[in-house]
Amino acid sequence: xxxxxxxxxxxxxxxxxxxxxxxxxxxxxxxxxxxxxxxxxxxxxxxxxxxxxxxxxxxxxxxxxxxxxxxxxxxxxxxxxxxxxxxxxxxxxxxxxxxxxxxxxxxxxxxxxxxxxxxxxxxxxxxxxxxxxxxxxxxxxxxxxxxxxxxxxxxxxxxxxxxxxxxxxxxxxxxxxxxxxxxxxxxxxxxxxxxxxxxxxxxxxxxxxxxxxxxxxxxxxxxxxxxxxxxxxxxxxxxxxxxxxxxxxxxxxxxxxxxxxxxxxxxxxxxxxxxxxxxxxxxxxxxxxxxxxxxxxxxxxxxxxxxxxxxxxxxxxxxxxxxxxxxxx
Length: 329
Prior knowledge:
Layout: E1 8-11, E2 17-19, E3 22-24, E4 26-30, H1 39-48, H2 50-60, E5 62-65, H3 74-84, E6 100-102, E7 105-107, E8 117-120, E9 132-139, E10 143-144, E11 149-151, H4 152-162, H5 164-173, E12 175-182, H6 195-198, H7 204-213, E13 216-220, E14 224-232, E15 236-238, E16 243-245, H8 250-256, H9 264-267, E17 268-270, H10 278-291, E18 302-306, E19 310-314, E20 317-318, E21 322-328
Parallel strand pairs: 4-5
Antiparallel strand pairs: 1-4, 2-3, 5-18, 6-7, 7-21, 8-19, 9-18, 9-21, 10-20, 11-19, 12-14, 12-17, 13-14, 15-16
Helix pairs in contact: 1-3, 4-5, 4-10, 8-10
């Protein structure tokens, strides 16, 4: 199918799944007529067909742009992100170690390649989170390193069916997330972002003020700070699609927030402070894996995700691999 402008063509790849007649994710490639073009043609097409692209994203939850030969560098990617016109969301309160690259673009989670990053909605553990995220493959992985994605409402439906009492308690009490931050970033940890880069300041009083805006409590220690967030909802209602979504970082925190400072079992509890049942968390992880799809990255790929509809993760990989990201309000 071509859009009315004829620039984008909907494509099929083997990894896609179909739910109620809707493929996940949508895949767009250049039409045959547009196989030779420069970056300005692509950005113009994005601006021209933005309403259609927005409706496609809303319907499918994620769009993979593949085969656009002018997309090779971080500045190219930044230009495409800018063409969509979404407002930028500063990365305040997130856990991942990242480095700013150019414009609105920074590195995706820089944790070691042998580590898996569990499924999560981006920044679901803080009140202000992105509505959309872009990923870009600047250097495709030698092996592995996929970014699996899964539709959030499917996870909610399966968990509700299998563990109704657990989900009821989750909806009633929400979750509390606890994380201990050092002063500086620790690139050996998947949650190694230090408090200075978490709050974008070297000043503790400014960090307190920014944490306060997130309703986050800080407890300072000799060499860092304990952050306590919550209770915060673990299930949200997606108004635009009229369905409940599994919007939390519960599995990510319980199975992955581990380093020299943090014990993952203590990283997340029910909102009333009671511990979570480990066997249910791991069963939820199994459901996430079963429902997910993992598309191997190719150089130049752009993946646009609706953060309210889709959770994402990262598989271990053999370097090199360089995936860049951009967050939007």
